[in-house]
Specification:
This protein is of the alpha+beta class and 449 residues long. It folds into 3 domains: 2-114, no CATH class; 176-309 and 397-442; 312-383, no CATH class. It has 16 helices and 10 strands. Strands 5, 6, 7, 8, 9 and 10 form a 6-stranded mixed sheet that branches. Helix 6 (150-177) crosses helix 7, helix 9 packs antiparallel against helix 13 and helix 11 runs antiparallel to helix 13 (364-379).
Length: 449
């Protein structure tokens, strides 16, 4: 068969060249791809046919408790990366379980689906990265296969995403009960730092998913549901020239969930243990100042140094000075002085500067909002010791998790016109979270050859 396909390819190429085909190379590529697929599909079909021939009269049912009997040999069409193939395999029935099953389907990884594992993976990767219609077009263009409809790709993406969530949950559950190895980042000569960086971002939802939830504007209904994101990585040192902290390459992992803070906190602690971070000398929790972040830190990471993201603090400082502009004689100098105090971690000096403006007497309408902003700094005093944090070589910005919010959530869920259900988006986010953590092999183990 290989010789016949090669001869057909040569003849097709010669015919194209003779007629001056403008895209000869692409035509050659397509013809070669089709020939290779035909040859490969024949090999795959042969192996599947051989595997399906052995059908004993009885075998154990899936739960292993009963003996099931062979009731028929049934055919099934499986779409693979090379094309469709039909297999015939034994179908069994367990009288005790009152259920039927085909053992070969389980061995081939096609139980409950008509897609091969390879094609299912391709569909899931495409569906998790781009709109389903675009993913459908990509699969068709690259492989030449017909998936029939975008719903096939959507269903496969959700199914593989559910598997990804099962993998993540299983590993986190194991981490809570089993000791983990000491991470490579723990070095007697190194700094031994690990970071837990937390944030949240909204994903656009269909109206039924936000019923009873209030939007940011009073009197409006929420249009999003919050996805909480956690980023975990280690740091062994700083740049020798600049002194800036340097994240250890390849150490970032992520978690994501629609669950409220309590559920997210439990997942964060499980990931912390899975990574072996409890063996690292100094954990650091970084966040934007949201109370739920510090509640989680206080509950699950009691020995961690807590740091408010410096750039969020600067934003609050900008809001404060903008609010006070009407009563300032020299806003530029006033702002610069407050920034200097923030850099030193001197939040008391910020509060003193505001008190000296005597807002209750001179601008009573500004007194309450100014007090709220000032409270942000005084309540986070121990989390804003930026001079000390810099001297210790710590990260003071939550950029890694903000980047993860963008990469894991926004790039896939916030495209024009998109509105989701939690059931539809959660599996996609599970796939993207696993992928961003460089852990695809946990879902699709590489075959050793």
């Amino acid at each position: 068969m290989a010789a016949a396909e090669a001869r057909r390819l040569v003849l097709a190429t010669a015919e194209l060249a003779e007629h001056g085909e403008a895209s000869v190379l692409e035509a050659i590529e397509r013809a070669a791809q089709q020939s290779a697929a035909t040859i490969g599909l024949a090999a795959v079909a042969g192996i599947m046919d051989w595997a399906g021939q052995h059908s004993p009269a009885r075998m154990s049912c899936p739960d292993g408790e009963h003996a099931a009997r062979l009731v028929a040999r049934r055919t099934k069409t499986i779409r693979t990366l090379l094309g469709s193939v039909e297999i015939t395999r034994g179908y069994y029935h367990c009288g005790a379980c009152r259920a039927g099953f085909a053992p070969l389907d389980t061995r081939l990884g096609v139980q409950g689906t008509g897609l091969s594992p390879g094609l299912a993976r391709a569909c899931a990767l495409a569906g998790s990265e781009m709109p389903y219609a675009k993913g459908f077009e990509l699969i068709t263009a690259v492989t030449g296969l017909d998936l029939a409809s975008t719903s096939t790709l959507a269903r496969t993406t959700r199914a593989q995403g559910a598997r990804a969530r099962e993998v993540i949950d299983a590993e986190q559950n194991a981490a809570m009960t089993s000791p983990r190895p000491i991470p490579a980042a723990v070095d007697e000569a190194g700094m031994g730092l690990c970071y837990i960086v937390m944030d949240g971002t909204g994903a656009p939802m269909l109206p039924r998913e936000t019923t009873g939830r209030h939007g940011k504007t009073p009197g409006t209904r929420a249009g999003t549901r919050e996805v909480k994101i956690g980023c975990f990585f280690t740091q062994s040192g700083c740049d020798p020239l600049t002194g800036d902290p340097v994240q250890d390459p390849g150490t970032a992992s992520y978690i994501s969930t629609f669950e409220p803070a309590a559920g997210f906190g439990a997942q964060a602690k499980a990931e912390y243990l899975r990574r072996g971070f409890d063996q690292i000398r100094q954990p650091v929790v970084l966040g934007d100042g949201a109370k739920w972040i510090w509640n989680i830190a206080d509950q699950h990471f009691t020995t961690a140094t807590q740091i408010v993201d410096y750039f969020h603090a600067r934003e609050h400082l900008a809001d404060l000075t903008k609010l006070l502009t009407p009563v300032l004689t020299d806003p530029t100098t006033f702002t610069r002085d407050l920034i200097d105090q923030l850099d030193l971690g001197n939040t008391a000096a910020i509060a003193t500067a505001i008190d000296q403006l005597d807002l209750p007497a001179k601008a009573p309408d500004l007194a309450r909002p100014a007090a709220t902003e000032t409270g942000y700094f005084t309540s986070n005093h121990h989390r804003m010791q930026y001079a000390d944090f810099r001297a210790a070589g710590y990260y003071i910005g939550s950029g890694p998790v903000e980047s993860a919010c963008n990469t894991i959530v926004k790039q896939r869920s916030k495209r024009a016109g998109m509105h989701w259900t939690i059931a539809g988006l959660a599996p996609v986010l599970a796939l993207r979270t696993l992928h961003q953590s460089n852990r695809d092999q946990e879902l699709w183990p590489a075959t050793q050859t």
